[in-house]
Amino acid sequence: MSRDAGALSAMFEVLSAPEADRVTALYAPLADAVRELIDVTIRTEADDDVVAEARAAIKSVTESLRHRTRPDGVSYRVGDRPLPLGNAAVGVCNPIAPPLVVHHEGGGRCWTEFVLGLAYEGPPSLVHGGVSALILDHMLGEAASEGLSKPRFTGTITVKYLRGTPLGRLRSEAWIDRREGVKVFARGFIADAAGITVEADGAEFVCRLGDFDDVGRFQK
């Protein structure tokens, strides 16, 4: 393992491949169900008694799930690879995440196709600009870190909104533009069926062992 890989791996609790599969199979469907709940909560026009009953049921389920929880800041890895189950962009166990499924083509290029519903709305029928920025920040990071295999973090990102991004099916691509010392510069976009709606470019910097404390926490 390289020194950079060692610095990255120190940030995660190790799971075996079978245990990672078990955790994902158990909790990802729960997150899917909560995503459906979020969507219908936004859309519902149910009567008062139905809403009251739903609130009571949700409170009961929340309390039962809260009985056993993991500490804040604990993430997982399998071997040298992170397993970002709670990530806000790709975490299959995070109901806030779409979640993105990112495909890598080699050479620092990646892409994803995804659907954004009402939970991500800004202006009526359009994606919130902050959500677009989140997705592009993640995609540039995926490209620059070569699939989250290298410890690199966003230094700067510039987002250019060309037009409103409609809710629905979208595509994002990102790639490494160039390297300068410890910095990796990446570019990317989000597009709908009619073309590109948002562009971004950013600089990712390489983390070193000195950037982490004794328990693997980033300290710069």
UniProtKB/TrEMBL annotation:
One of its GO terms (biological process) is fatty acid metabolic process. GO terms for cellular component: cytoplasm; membrane. Its EC number is 3.1.2.2. The keyword Glycoprotein does not apply. It is an enzyme of class 3 (hydrolase). CDD domains: PaaI_thioesterase. It is a peripheral membrane protein. One of its GO terms (molecular function) is hydrolase activity. The keyword Magnesium does not apply. Residues 127-186 form the Thioesterase domain. It holds the Pfam family 4HBT. It catalyses: dodecanoyl-CoA + H2O = dodecanoate + CoA + H(+); hexadecanoyl-CoA + H2O = hexadecanoate + CoA + H(+); tetradecanoyl-CoA + H2O = tetradecanoate + CoA + H(+); octanoyl-CoA + H2O = octanoate + CoA + H(+). It is found in: Cell projection, Ruffle membrane; Cytoplasm; Membrane. Keywords: Apoptosis, Cell membrane, Cell projection, Cytoplasm, Fatty acid metabolism, Hydrolase, Lipid metabolism, Membrane, Transit peptide. Belongs to the THEM4/THEM5 thioesterase family. This is Acyl-coenzyme A thioesterase THEM4.
